[in-house]
Amino acid sequence: MNEPIYQRIEDSAHFRELVEKRQRFAGILSLIILVIYISFILLIAFAPGWLGAPIGPDTSVTRGIPIGMGIIIISFVMTGIYVWRANKEFDRLNNAVLREVKAL
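RE: above sequence
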Protein backbone atom coordinates (compact mmCIF):
# COMPACT_ATOMS: atom_id res chain seq x y z
CA MET A 1 0.00 0.00 0.00
CA ASN A 2 2.78 2.48 0.93
CA GLU A 3 5.30 1.18 -1.60
CA PRO A 4 4.51 3.89 -4.20
CA ILE A 5 5.01 6.61 -1.57
CA TYR A 6 8.38 5.20 -0.55
CA GLN A 7 9.41 4.92 -4.17
CA ARG A 8 8.39 8.52 -4.86
CA ILE A 9 10.44 9.65 -1.87
CA GLU A 10 13.49 7.70 -3.02
CA ASP A 11 13.12 9.07 -6.54
CA SER A 12 12.87 12.65 -5.29
CA ALA A 13 15.80 14.91 -6.18
CA HIS A 14 15.29 16.80 -2.91
CA PHE A 15 15.51 13.54 -0.96
CA ARG A 16 18.77 12.56 -2.65
CA GLU A 17 20.14 16.04 -1.97
CA LEU A 18 19.06 15.80 1.67
CA VAL A 19 20.68 12.41 2.17
CA GLU A 20 23.91 13.46 0.46
CA LYS A 21 24.28 16.74 2.35
CA ARG A 22 23.37 15.24 5.71
CA GLN A 23 25.75 12.29 5.32
CA ARG A 24 28.61 14.51 4.16
CA PHE A 25 28.11 16.99 6.99
CA ALA A 26 27.73 14.29 9.66
CA GLY A 27 30.82 12.56 8.29
CA ILE A 28 32.91 15.73 8.47
CA LEU A 29 31.81 16.49 12.04
CA SER A 30 32.39 12.87 13.08
CA LEU A 31 35.86 12.91 11.54
CA ILE A 32 36.75 16.12 13.38
CA ILE A 33 35.63 14.68 16.73
CA LEU A 34 37.41 11.39 16.02
CA VAL A 35 40.68 13.19 15.27
CA ILE A 36 40.34 15.24 18.47
CA TYR A 37 39.65 12.17 20.62
CA ILE A 38 42.42 10.09 19.05
CA SER A 39 44.86 12.99 19.45
CA PHE A 40 43.98 13.21 23.13
CA ILE A 41 44.44 9.46 23.62
CA LEU A 42 47.79 9.59 21.80
CA LEU A 43 48.80 12.52 23.98
CA ILE A 44 47.94 10.47 27.07
CA ALA A 45 49.90 7.50 25.72
CA PHE A 46 53.03 9.27 24.48
CA ALA A 47 53.29 12.46 26.55
CA PRO A 48 51.80 11.74 29.98
CA GLY A 49 54.45 13.84 31.68
CA TRP A 50 53.62 16.90 29.61
CA LEU A 51 49.89 16.37 30.06
CA GLY A 52 50.30 15.84 33.82
CA ALA A 53 52.43 18.93 34.32
CA PRO A 54 50.82 21.78 36.27
CA ILE A 55 49.62 24.80 34.33
CA GLY A 56 51.50 27.17 36.59
CA PRO A 57 53.89 27.04 39.53
CA ASP A 58 51.23 27.85 42.14
CA THR A 59 48.48 25.51 40.98
CA SER A 60 47.72 21.83 41.10
CA VAL A 61 45.66 22.00 37.89
CA THR A 62 47.41 20.04 35.18
CA ARG A 63 47.36 20.66 31.43
CA GLY A 64 45.14 17.63 30.96
CA ILE A 65 42.18 19.14 32.83
CA PRO A 66 41.53 22.14 30.53
CA ILE A 67 42.31 20.03 27.47
CA GLY A 68 39.79 17.38 28.59
CA MET A 69 37.21 20.06 29.37
CA GLY A 70 37.89 21.60 25.96
CA ILE A 71 37.17 18.29 24.26
CA ILE A 72 33.85 18.01 26.07
CA ILE A 73 32.95 21.60 25.15
CA ILE A 74 33.94 21.00 21.51
CA SER A 75 31.63 17.97 21.47
CA PHE A 76 28.72 20.13 22.65
CA VAL A 77 29.58 22.84 20.13
CA MET A 78 29.71 20.30 17.28
CA THR A 79 26.34 18.94 18.34
CA GLY A 80 24.96 22.47 18.36
CA ILE A 81 26.37 23.13 14.89
CA TYR A 82 24.71 19.98 13.58
CA VAL A 83 21.36 20.87 15.18
CA TRP A 84 21.57 24.44 13.84
CA ARG A 85 22.21 23.23 10.29
CA ALA A 86 19.58 20.49 10.61
CA ASN A 87 16.98 23.03 11.70
CA LYS A 88 17.99 25.45 8.97
CA GLU A 89 18.82 23.44 5.85
CA PHE A 90 17.89 19.81 6.43
CA ASP A 91 14.38 20.61 7.64
CA ARG A 92 13.85 22.81 4.57
CA LEU A 93 14.89 19.94 2.30
CA ASN A 94 12.74 17.50 4.26
CA ASN A 95 9.71 19.75 3.85
CA ALA A 96 10.45 20.07 0.12
CA VAL A 97 10.45 16.27 -0.16
CA LEU A 98 7.11 16.06 1.65
CA ARG A 99 5.54 18.77 -0.51
CA GLU A 100 6.85 17.06 -3.65
CA VAL A 101 5.55 13.62 -2.65
CA LYS A 102 2.16 14.92 -1.50
CA ALA A 103 1.73 16.83 -4.76
CA LEU A 104 2.05 13.66 -6.84
